[in-house]
Amino acid sequence: MHTFSNHPIGLLPVEQNYDPAKPSIAEFFSGRDIFVTGGTGFMGKVLIEKLLRSCSELNHIYVLIREKKQKSIKERMLEMQQLPLFDKLREEQPELLDKMVPVQGDVSLLGLGLSQHDIEMMRNVSVIFHVAASVRFDDPLKTAILLNTRGTRELVQFAEQLPSLRVLMHVSSTYSNPDRYVIEEEVYPAYADWRDTIRIAETFDEQTLDVLAPKYMGFLPNTYVFTKSLAEQIVNEHKDRLPMILFRPSIVISSMKDPIPGWMDNFNGPVGLLVGCGIGICRTMYCDPNNIADFTPVDVCIKAMIVAAWKRGTEPVPSTANQNLPIYNCCISNLRNSTMSQIVEMGRTLSDEIPLDKCIWAPGGGITQIRIHNLIRVLLYHILPAILIDGIFRLMGQKPFLAKLQRKIYTANVALEYFILNNWDFKNGNFIKLASEIKPEDNKDFYYRDFIEFDVTLYFRNCILGARRYLLKEKDENIPRALTHLKRMKLLDKICKTIIVAVFLYIILIQFDMLGMILYLISYKPSYGLEVDCK
Questions:
Q1: The Thioester reductase (TE) domain covers which part of the protein (predicted)?
Q2: CA within 20 to 30 Å of 334's CA: 109, 165, 231, 529, which one?
Q3: Which fold has domain 28-260+294-335+424-452?
């Protein structure tokens, strides 16, 4: 077993451990029907696009979708196919999009909400990627159990009906056992019995469960990690009956380069921090500045998922009583890490190069480990300016939004406190070794360890550009205008700070006559002489 440095590598051994007798990844997926849950989510979209583009001979990808906001499942799929993520596929091989088949259902429902017709249609599915999950930390316990835990049970029961199944990958999280600070690639003892937990969620109402949640979850910080850890127990219990894989990504953020640099569809993780700082609304954060931000680019994660599925699907099928459960901690902080303070500093530097059109104040602020200091800064830099700016919007006849946004930011930071004040040591030997088993002809499309040598500053530069393009819908040609706007904001920031300091000094020195007292003390001379009696 190799040991790895925390430094950017160059130092990684470039070993090769592939089996030439195995089919290539594209050959393995050729002609197969694939079932994906969570296909409309961030990782699911990138997974589907990558499978279609790099394994174009596959038969169908069935995507579990529910109707949402009065949109049918077909409308939602067509909407997804128009995203910039699919531009390359639409331009080069648009016919491959026809291989996406929407299937109406919902992971939180019994039987996944599948109709008998759809179950028969998916009879030949041989690979399943279970990506669906609620990633909200503040979900009610009942909601999280039904989606994350019971949903996994329902998927497993569906998979048991498939005669041609070769792989079932369950996507979990490296943070599913957060009370342990060294996380090996293994399943840990359960925090509760998953059968009892599902029964409780099905029996009691949401309010009752929320009252019981702190006691029932023990020391776990939120419903997400609790229910994901229980889902791992379900996977582990079925490893002898189904060809399971447990895949644990860390914080998954913008793509590195495949299919496009900087693709992102949410504000989670460091990208949200960079955008908040760039807009000027996030000026303080309560966390350890030396905390390691364990993030993984989404294309690195997706490539590793596909490689892991290929490896599992091409292995000889052992006797049902002796199947191992392959577990992969998809994380890179022990190979290439960035601290929270480094990310903030990078954000400051990049905000001068790539400002945001929607910047409402000059970027600034920082990190503090002192809670009371953070609360004071939240009051002075977040809440009071938000109230003032919203008041101006009201006078101008526009809808106020900043106070509501700051409330969301504060709530999100409170939910993240447990994770940004602690560090974990994620062991990833299986994840690293997996890359060495990729065949040479697959390296171009599926090799994922190149992130270790990728320029981190360039990566975060692409993250901010991606946030501009895909989240904030800002055009690159507006950057010069945004630079001019940023200069005005910086000037306004300096003027405001100067005025505040001047008013403060005026009140202290003039109104309270501190200046007169200081001058009096400086010029004061005693009116009596000192007498020294020497005898």
A1: 36-305
A2: 231
A3: Rossmann fold (3.40.50)
Neighbours of 8 (CB within 10 A): 15
CA–CA distance, 73 with 104 (Å, rounded to integer): 7
Residue 189's contacts (CB-CB under 8 Å, 6 or more residues apart) are: none
Distance CA 233, CA 227 (A): 10
Cβ atoms 219, 178 nearer than 8 A: no
Nearest to 186 by CA among 147, 250, 229, 148: 229
Question: CB–CB of 83/339 below 8 Å?
Answer: no
Residue type, 237: E
Those residues whose C-beta lies under 8 Å from the C-beta of residue 103, and which sit 6 or more positions away, are 35, 62, 63, 64, 65, 73, 114, 118, 121, 122
Q: What is the pLDDT of residues 270-326, one digit of tens each?
A: 788 788 888 888 888 888 888 888 889 999 999 999 999 999 999 887 655 567 899
What is the signed CA dihedral for 145, 149, 155, 161, rounded to 10 degrees? Answer: -110
Q: At what angle do helices 42-54 and 298-313 cross, to 10 degrees?
A: 60
